[in-house]
Amino acid sequence: MTDSIIAPGRVAVITGAAKGIGAALARHLSNEGMLLSLFDRDEASLSALAASLKTECCVVTGDVSCIEDLTQLRDKTLEQFGEVVLVVNNAGVKAGAGPWDAPEKWRQNLEINLLSAVSVQHLFVPVMLEASVKGAIVNLGSKEGITTPPGNAAYSAGKAAMKVLTEQLAHELMRVTSGRVTAHLLVPGYTWTDMNSPGLDEKMNAKPDEAWTASQVVDYFVAHFRAGDFYIICPDNAVSADLDKKRIAWALQDIIENRPALSRWHPDYQDAFNQWVNR
């Protein structure tokens, strides 16, 4: 169980903390009394967030794809707080690339959405293994990495790899620590954030009815994290948990049934898919 990790005086690290889900999580954890180490490339927004929080913060500005910047995050966190019990790999971009687009487009996406998490794990997991307390790594996945809809191959591929990475991490941590240090995959639904709505101003823009707020995602995450769940797949106002399960099951059955790739969007399978989700 992870119920002792989110607790007063414990230390959490959040990448991509300046806005959206990262900022909402920082506010929630601070309200619970946690000390925070916050990382983002947006120095102004990050500093403003830290100044608004109730608990002590370590603030590091940098590029999540730069190992030197992430090393500074680790070193400053340990220098200021002396421990880390929760690490959240939240940083990400939606920048797209198709199956035959230039490798440079793919590289930018994967360095931020996938390889940054590998770097963070490389830097922080040994610290957590050496400690004698419970700890956890939380990686941000996406439903696009599970059902892999057409339209943004690089993003879907990176998030699919993040799912596999986190599953592998969870298993190895279970083997090495017998459950003292755990890993969790947080999969938001449609969320009203700057990533999904570039230039978002919450005071000026109206939230789409279908979307959850970042705070709703965080509340859902915290409840399921405390219950010890590995897969934390959030619904939203348009897609229920039951519909998510049916979409995921259909995608997995493409392999078992030897259907065409991404058959959910294949014209020959539209009726079959609709019957599946409505039964």
TrEMBL record:
GO terms for molecular function: oxidoreductase activity, acting on NAD(P)H, oxygen as acceptor. Keywords: Oxidoreductase. It holds the Pfam family adh_short. InterPro entries: NAD(P)-bd_dom_sf, Sc_DH/Rdtase_CS, SDR_fam. It comes from the Bacteria. CDD domains: SDR_c. Belongs to the short-chain dehydrogenases/reductases (SDR) family. This is Oxidoreductase.
